[in-house]
Amino acid sequence: MAKPTEYATLICVILTIVAIIGGIIGFVNLSPLVIIFTLLPTVIYEVYRTEGESTRASSWLMLFVLVAEAIFVLFKISFDLGQYLGQSHAYIAGSIVPLGDIKVLAPVLLAVLSVILFVRTAGIYTKWLSVIIFIGSFVLIYVIAPGGFSDLIKATIGQIFFYL
To answer: Which one, out of 21, 22, 28, 164, has a CA that is 20 to 30 A from the CA of 139?
Structure first.
């Protein structure tokens, strides 16, 4: 059953403003926790709005990843997933994702999941929310690892030209 849309526009506008403010403050202060906690309401509302089986699973996974990222940052947990798996990159949803510190991989996964939601959902509000999450993920990646951000952009551009 479709979710009510009476206040959806207002909620999405408010969540957009909160994410922008959080992104700016987090970027200026290099504080990933600010970005994470201001993205959290958007992800929670995305979980509420999604209805399809695969989109619901993706939105719940996004929530799990964002909470895990908060824990990684808050408790300063570093774990080199690439070294553990013995490879430097992985293919996630058809994209090359550089493996490394788990704190960088989590927002990359968040960005990939937001793209999946954008493509697979029909609702304008869930698409809107996925764009907020996507942009917030890239700001989060930049704040956590500026060098990893440039590598990710290069890999993304390489993938785009590969498919053209």
So the answer is: 164
The neighbour count for residue 109, using CB atoms within 10 Å, is 23
Q: What's the pLDDT tens digit per position in 17-53?
A: 999 999 999 999 999 999 999 999 999 999 999 988 8
Q: DSSP for 114-151, please give it.
A: HHHHHHH---HHHHHHHHHHHHHHHHHHHHH-HHHHHH
- Are residues 40 and 22 in contact, defined by beta-carbon separation less than 8 angstroms? no
Which residues, other chains included, contact 19 with Cβ-Cβ below 8 Å and sequence gap of 6+? 38, 39, 42, 132, 135, 136
Residue pLDDT, tens place only, 52-63: 888 999 999 999
Domain ranges of the chain: 8-78+102-144
Going 31 to 153 to 79 to 132, the CA torsion angle's sign is positive
For residue 68, the 8-state DSSP code is: H
